[in-house]
Every structure is written in structure tokens, then in C-alpha cells.
Amino acid sequence: MSGWKFVKGTGSDSLAAVQFLTRIPMPYLPYDPDSLSRAVKFFPVVGLVIGSAAALLHQLLTPHLPRLVTALLVIAFLVSITGCLHEDGLADTADGFGGGSSREQILIILKDSRIGSYGGAALTLSLSARVLLLASLPLTQIPQYLIAAHVLCRWTTLPLSYYLASARSQQDQAGAGQGARIAKLTTRGTLIVGSIFSLAICTFALRTHAAAAVAATILVTFLSGLYYHRRIGGVTGDCFGATNQLAEIAVYLTGAWLA
């Protein structure tokens, strides 16, 4: 591959990652069914951008508003900039695994765009937990935790998509959604490079508290991945979103615990 093709491909993949994970306006990209699987390596980088923007917003609001109000506005910003992508995944996953007793029932519910009682409860608890935990962190450490949390929570897609296949059969792949475009398609190199990058950013941001945040993220990723595998034999796009949300909460929780 020539140097120009490499640069062009890298640029397209990074734009695809931003386009998929955020609502930030991006230049038009021609549809490529393989672009998302290549873009996964940039997910932690997009997390760094999102976390840094949230940290900057927090710093701007802190001198003027109570901590709880500031935390609420920061979470509202995060929900807006990502278009509720991960919240939608969490709600659908809660409905699917909470309401389905068999693999087939779970997968049917996961495809249903309507939110049920399990999904509503999960969303309420997730939003509340993030606001309360963010407001509970030491004030000077909140920007660092925002950056670390959003790098690590988007890192979770890498190991899940490396180890787990799509939960849907080949016959269902046409309607399987975005998750099937990355499940079991992440390369070992992407996993290693993405992990090193995420660990480096987290260590730089949190210093001595980085180990707890990384350990919590790995634990959430492992346990949720094991649960998905046992219940439905793999993952869906909603599962990626649910683990993302749980990992973000876990990182904030470690910060509040160690404060």
C-alpha cells in the first residue's frame, strides 16, 4: 500500500468512527460495508475527543453553577453529542435480557425499537448514576475522569468485537444492524494498539488512580461479554452500547470510591 493510500484510508476510517459515534458534522463518506470494522481502532480516539470536550465544558460551567447542575449539563451534553447511541443500546439490552427467557425471544426484543419497563428503568438509573457520581468526584479530578471514562468505555468495543461473534445467524445478518459489522472482525493488532493507547491516556489522566479505573473497565467488559455469550451466543450492537454505559459508570464509581 502506498503512503498516500494509507493516509487516505486512515483519514476515512477516523471520519467513519466520528460519524458513527457522534453527531458532529462530518464530510460525506461513500457507503462502505467494511468501513465500521476498520474504524473500530479509532473508537478510543473519538472517546478522547468527546471526553476532552466534556471536560472543557465542565471547567467553563464550574465557576458559575452548583456542582449537581454542572454535572447534569455535562451529561446532557454527552447524550446530545452522541445522539443517545449508547443509551439506546442500554435500554434495548435491558429490555431484551430482562424480558426474554430464551435466545430467540431476547433477539426479537432487541430488534424492537420501543422501550419497555426494563429499558426505562435502566435509562433512569444510568443517567442518575452518572450525574450523581460525577458530582461526587473531587472537583479538581472531574476533567481527568471525564477523559479517562470516555476513552475506556469506547475501548470496551475492541475486546468484545475481537472475542465475540454476532449473536444472529447468517440468515439474519441482513437485518442484524451495525453490531454484525464489527463482531469478530476486530484484528489483534487493533486490539493491542487500541489497548495501549487507552491505557496510556488513562494513566496520564488519572495517575495513581488509573489502575482502579482500568481494572473496573476490564471487569465490566469481561462479565458483560461472558453474559452475552451465555445468553445469546454472541453480541449485538445494543450489547456494545450497554457495556459502554456500564463501563463509564464503573470508572466514575472508582473515582468516588477513592475520593
Describe what you observe in this structure.
One of its GO terms (molecular function) is cobalamin 5'-phosphate synthase activity. It catalyses: alpha-ribazole 5'-phosphate + adenosylcob(III)inamide-GDP = adenosylcob(III)alamin 5'-phosphate + GMP + H(+); alpha-ribazole + adenosylcob(III)inamide-GDP = adenosylcob(III)alamin + GMP + H(+). It comes from Edaphobacter modestus. Joins adenosylcobinamide-GDP and alpha-ribazole to generate adenosylcobalamin (Ado-cobalamin). Also synthesizes adenosylcobalamin 5'-phosphate from adenosylcobinamide-GDP and alpha-ribazole 5'-phosphate. By secondary structure, the protein is an all-alpha fold. It has one domain (40-258). Helices cover 72% and strands 0% of the residues. The chain has twelve helices and no strands. Helix 8 (142-155) runs antiparallel to helix 12 (237-258). The longest helix has 23 residues, at 210-232. The chain starts with a helix and ends with a helix. 46% of the residues are buried. The mean pLDDT is 89.
A few lines on this structure:
The protein is mainly alpha-helical.
Number of E-type strands: 0
Overall mean pLDDT score?
89
Largest sheet: none
Helix-strand makeup class: mainly alpha
Q: How many DSSP H or I helices? A: 12
Regions with little confidence, pLDDT below 50 for 5+ residues: none
Approximate helicity band? over 70%
H/E element order: HHHHHHHHHHHH
Shape: globular
Q: What's the domain count?
A: 1
Give the distance, in angstroms, between the N- and C-terminal Cα atoms: 49 Å
Strand content: under 5%
Rg is 18 Å
